[in-house]
Each structure stands twice: as structure tokens, then as C-alpha cells.
Amino acid sequence: MPQCKITGILMATFTLPANSKIKKQGKVHKAEGAAKVKKFTVYRYDPDSGENPRYDTFEIDLDNCGPMVLDALIKMKSEADPSLTFRRSCREGICGSCAMNMNGKNGLACTTAIEDLKGDIRITPLPHMDVIKDLVPDFTHFYAQYASIRPWLQTVSTTPSGKERLQTPEQREKLDGLYECILCACCSTSCPSYWWNSDKFLGPAILLQAYRWLADSRDEMTGERLDELEDPFRLYRCHTIMNCANVCPKGLSPARAIAEIKKMQAERQV
Fold first, then answer.
1. Angstrom distance (rounded) from CA 73 to CA 76
2. Whole-prediction pTM value?
């Protein structure tokens, strides 16, 4: 690694990967003749072009646009630049597809109102994920981590013939605040511990999902699940920063779920 000498101290120097620096000047799409204009600055990156990323500016006529950020993105793509790329599906805050960073905070474009974002709006992909194109991050590693916790009911006993595995209302209530997770990754990509340790730390979203099965009275693999989480990085990189709870579009608290897992780990040592 190259080094430089400053006042007798050796300091490491780092260089960014090729094509990672953002261009200063992007394209500008005007809203000619519009009376009520909102300016959006949108991150653009196409790896096939070989060019560096840039920020394009889109002026949106709010008098002819829906109320949500996703409505503005659809308008940009359909009327200004068809090459603009982003994920979207349900438009109801259920699928999690349109997760992105808006004015520095992660959220869902379909449930974020334009009027709630003050001033010009800057839109970028979820932070600290590889970018496939424009606003589309690569979820491959995130989904692999999700698969690693075996997110399904695991049992060893025989299912009662012709019957479901029943729960009491109290047992079912313990899953509230867990099953609603839509795996949008807003929480994990807001977590500094996940930024620096995503290769080993499972992150808020996956650990919340792990607790969802630990809390399920029908699951019979509690010990095995806890064994797999007993690791300095997989679980214990969480330092309760609380960014996860602050950005969750469903109002969940991954930090609380992680604390419950730590509590279960401690209790079984007693």
C-alpha cells in the first residue's frame, strides 16, 4: 500500500476504485412552463457505459404529478428519460421494492410524500450496497444472509394428523412487530455496524427475522438457531445505534428484536 510521510508519521493513502468518483455535471431536464416546480437530483450510474456516476437534475411540475416520490420517479422515466432505472411494484408499502435514500434518509419512495421533503430532493440508492444501475442496489448478499437463518418453521415432532400446529392468542401476539418486516433493507443499510461488517454481521433486518422464528411457539429448533447466532460478528456487532428503528417504514424495532436474542443467549447460559 502506498504511504506518505507527514511530520515523521507514516500514513496510509487510499485510492477509490475506477469509475467511482461522481461527475460534477449531469444532465438537466427542465419543466418548461410549469408554475409549481420541484427539483430532484437523482444518482445515475450505468456500469455498461464505462462512465463515472453522475447526478441528473429533473424539474417536476407538481400540478401534474402524484403526491409521492415514486410518482415523480415514474414521471421522470416516462416523460424525461426512459433509461432511468429503479425498482417498484406494489405502490402500497408492502413489497419493499422501491427502497432508496431520499434527502439522506432511507425509506420507500411509494410511501414518502414529496411535500414532506423540504427543499430540493436528492435521491440515491440504498447506501453501502453495490449498485447494479442507477437506483437499483444488489441484494444478492442480503438475500443470502436471509437464507442462512433458515426462515421457515422447523420441527422434529410429528404434525397432528389433519390439524394445524395451534397457538394461543398470547403466543401469536409475540409475533407482532416481527412478521410485518418486508425485507426492504432500509434498516440494515442505515446501520454503521453493517456498513463496516456486512460480510460477517447479519444486520438488523436479518436478525429481526431470526428472532421472528425464535419467538414462534411452534418452532422446535430454538437451541440450534441460537447456536448459529452465537458469534462475535453475526449477532454482537449490534451496538444499539437505533438507526434501524428510526428508518423502518413499517414502524418496527429491529434493535428490540436483537436485544431479545441477546437476552435469550444470556439466559441459556445461566
1. 5
2. 0.90
